[in-house]
Write a structure and sequence with these properties.
By secondary structure, this protein is mostly helical. Helix content is 80%, strand content 3%. It has 6 helices and 2 strands, in the order H-H-E-E-H-H-H-H. The protein has helices spanning 3-6, 10-54, 67-89, 91-111, 117-121, 123-141; strands spanning 61-62, 65-66. It has a two-stranded antiparallel sheet.
Amino acid sequence: MDDSVSQLTAEQYISSRLEQYQGWYDGKAVAMKAKYLRMRAMSVIGGSLVPVLINVPYHAEVGGVSVVQVIVTLISLLVVISLSLESVFHYREQWKNYRSTEQLLGHENFFSEPVSDDTMRSPMKMHSACWWNASKMLLLQKTPLH
């Protein structure tokens, strides 16, 4: 075994490995959420504009084609493309999966905290330490996704 790995303490290992992965998953979750929200916003805005533009009494034509009709067609095309890409790439599901994995790694970080010998000798202190870790776990589960 490599000497540098065998000399790592638990805290060093956690900071070098667990937090590294947690940061990576957090970055991916943020990126997928941004893509998902961008696609949804484009779909909602485009879907809202189409009926409005159809009812606008503007009759300009370029080359014998109605300008409003071309704009409505392009917006409708963008909405369909946006929704189709979302159904192919599943940005929402990816965002949720990356976020839950990142939070799971955070839970592992809490559960990997060392317990002192003094705590192990006293049943009441051990109970308090277990209760404290369980409480932190419950609080983490109630945190909103971001």
